Amino acid sequence: MAKYALSPLAPEAFPKLPVIKGARFATHAAGVRYKGREDVMMVALDAGTTIAGTFTRSATRSAPVLDCQAKLGSAPEGEAVILVNAGNSNAFTGKAGVASVQAITGAVAEIMEVSPNRVFTSSTGVIGEPLPHGRIIDALDALKGKLDENGIENAANAIMTTDTFPKGSVASFEINGKTVNIAGIAKGSGMIAPDMATMLVYIFTDAQIAQDDLQALVSSFTDTTFNCITVDSDTSTSDTLLMAATGASGVEVSHDTKAFREGLHSVMLDLAHQVVKDGEGAHKFVTINVTGAKTNAEAKVHAMSIANSPLVKTAIAGEDPNWGRVVMAIGKSGAAADRDLLSIRFGDILVAEKGWVSPNYREEQGAAIMKNAEITISVDLGLAHGEATVWTCDLTHTYIEINADYRS
Amino acid sequence: MAKYALSPLAPEAFPKLPVIKGARFATHAAGVRYKGREDVMMVALDAGTTIAGTFTRSATRSAPVLDCQAKLGSAPEGEAVILVNAGNSNAFTGKAGVASVQAITGAVAEIMEVSPNRVFTSSTGVIGEPLPHGRIIDALDALKGKLDENGIENAANAIMTTDTFPKGSVASFEINGKTVNIAGIAKGSGMIAPDMATMLVYIFTDAQIAQDDLQALVSSFTDTTFNCITVDSDTSTSDTLLMAATGASGVEVSHDTKAFREGLHSVMLDLAHQVVKDGEGAHKFVTINVTGAKTNAEAKVHAMSIANSPLVKTAIAGEDPNWGRVVMAIGKSGAAADRDLLSIRFGDILVAEKGWVSPNYREEQGAAIMKNAEITISVDLGLAHGEATVWTCDLTHTYIEINADYRS
């Protein structure tokens, strides 16, 4: 299904995801844009399912994102449906885009016999072209007929655009002797590109949890997972994370339930990492740890400045232990730094300290670290106790190839 | 002298720069890092010359930058000297870097018989390696012996690193029947890279102007010229602009003198554009105009978000009129925008308006514009009257080649 070669950072296989009772999946080849592949997926969720979500903060966000945001937080009355298409993002499509969302959600509500307020849609693909929503509506009967609690892997495939592998993650754990499952899928490889990537994430659990508790958890964990990854510093107009808790396990949890918190965080972090590992042109997966900053927020500013620097990212692509570019990225970030206090490590190797290269550092040590597929760069600013970790990938010729291709 | 192929955006020839009375130039092959080329330049400035400057705001700025900043604004007593080396930036070199600056400025002061407070140095090149300042000091006698009022073009060549052409600009105009000249040189091609680029700019005039007036003009014009260009969003630890007014024309000017203001602004803008045109891997020179923003500052945030977006820059490299990526960059910038009010033009072609593609726009029109070597992208936000213009280049395979090369 993928147009580009499989990412060298791809996992060996799609994980075996558990059935989430109360959630059924269907996929269909609606021909929105792609030929010969499934490009629409539907999730039907049992009555009582609570739904939370987080979305792009872009000022130019898409019509489906605005529609989802307006519906979140309404009472979990009756069944709910998530409907997603690949191939067209319905973003920057003006009033026609709003009309497309209304047409689709109205048709879903009618065919699935749910309230329009319980229909959530996402679209990913080319920006600025009218969404041929008729093709999606024409597929609804077929989708309804195919709904299956085992369909989540197909759903992960149907939402791909420039992704080179489908992304899934699972956490299963016991609470009071009963098993609770969390299963998530995601797509995304550049932060955005017309005809290309947007990040979409759907997570399902059979735990029973109040909507406001679920929203609080999802918002909090988004800040330290999906909001801490960057492929190219560009932010989609369509990024969407939706989480549905069906309650079918009969296990009640809250935002304080440790096992649920840990399981959900682990699924979100795993999916976030998979998005980076499928970053357009990525050959290296890079963890940036910043400690010793004035605040956690300032640590993240530094970490993102390093993670988004084209010079740092091309150095990583070239397997060059170029710590001078890390110094540069810290200097330009705008957050506080004292040149003579900061230290830099590549992996476990102390590269620079006290404003200069470490006296024991030898270039071969750094060069050896840079040959790895997964690299950790750690910066300690020596100022206070603020810290942050972000994840990124290298910037390679393949990124240019993917994104400098003419669209048509 | 250039390691890389001449930029396709290079001017046909180095401009003929006028003699600036009171300023003499010398260059020498000191062997700081490069072999077989001149890599040090000296400017000797007559007594009474006023000097102004602007510098990188990086928190990790280099020792010579900090030294220059400390000296600016002191009284113009006696002669002054500017000394610049290429090959080593003396950045992130700890206490040894400070000692190198002191050794060089002390030696220059002694040999040239000037106050150390009137010696300004810059260094550009690899980060984090000790500056072999002895080689520079050894060259001072030779430099002193070569000083020549016609040496400015050689100086422009001696300060190049990854530059593919030397950069010069001139403005000559009459004030009260007397000719005033401004001549400037610059180097820079990436915002920074070890062993590579830093932006250095030196401008000379025979006008007579008070230091605070000169500083006010230089600071103000820097904001709308050099601070409005971006090659790769990365900011050097060494960026330096120094301006020297010898007064030798006998023409007194102030920050209000229209001809002087216009001439200086034109030289600064021309040099800034030349830096972009020599941007690492640049094949296209791109002007981004943003109007209708809430404030000028917000207009610049939007313009820089567009200019720095890897997806916008790769689209330009691919000659793809991909206005969806422009929408994305506006959306992510953090400054105010209303999707349904903004309009986008490529050249004179109205591409998008009122939140969607313009009804009369045809893709061929945009595609034709994108084939040009110089492209203007204009965005009107439709909110208020804030405006800004910035300049950038495309992001090509050559940028990756230059920057993913292993250093050694």
From TrEMBL, chains A, B:
Pfam families: ArgJ (PF01960)
GO terms under biological process: L-arginine biosynthetic process; ornithine biosynthetic process
Residue numbers annotated as active site: 198 (nucleophile)
Residues given in the record as substrate binding sites: 161, 187, 198, 280, 403, 408
Main location: cytoplasm
Record site: Cleavage: 197-198
CDD domains in alphabetical order: OAT
Recorded catalytic activity of this chain's protein: L-glutamate + acetyl-CoA = N-acetyl-L-glutamate + CoA + H(+); N(2)-acetyl-L-ornithine + L-glutamate = N-acetyl-L-glutamate + L-ornithine
Alphabetical UniProt keywords: Acyltransferase, Amino-acid biosynthesis, Arginine biosynthesis, Autocatalytic cleavage, Cytoplasm, Multifunctional enzyme, Transferase
Biochemical pathway: Amino-acid biosynthesis; L-arginine biosynthesis; L-ornithine and N-acetyl-L-glutamate from L-glutamate and N(2)-acetyl-L-ornithine (cyclic): step 1/1; Amino-acid biosynthesis; L-arginine biosynthesis; N(2)-acetyl-L-ornithine from L-glutamate: step 1/4
Gene Ontology annotations for the cellular component aspect, listed alphabetically: cytoplasm
Transport found in the keyword field: no
Claim: Transferase is one of the keywords in the record: yes
InterPro entries hit by this protein: Arg_biosynth_ArgJ, ArgJ-like_dom_sf, ArgJ_beta_C
Enzyme nomenclature, EC number: 2.3.1.35, 2.3.1.1
Location within or outside the cell: Cytoplasm
Top-level class of the enzyme under EC nomenclature: transferase
Gene3D superfamilies in the record: ArgJ beta chain, C-terminal domain (3.10.20.340), L-amino peptidase D-ALA esterase/amidase (3.60.70.12)
SUPFAM superfamilies: DmpA/ArgJ-like
Site-annotated residues for Involved in the stabilization of negative charge on the oxyanion by the formation of the oxyanion hole: 124-125
Superkingdom: Bacteria
GO terms for MF: L-glutamate N-acetyltransferase activity; L-glutamate N-acetyltransferase activity, acting on acetyl-L-ornithine as donor
Family recorded in the similarity comment: Belongs to the ArgJ family.
Quaternary structure (record): Heterotetramer of two alpha and two beta chains.
Role description: Catalyzes two activities which are involved in the cyclic version of arginine biosynthesis: the synthesis of N-acetylglutamate from glutamate and acetyl-CoA as the acetyl donor, and of ornithine by transacetylation between N(2)-acetylornithine and glutamate.
UniProt protein name: Arginine biosynthesis bifunctional protein ArgJ
Organism in which the protein naturally occurs: Donghicola tyrosinivorans
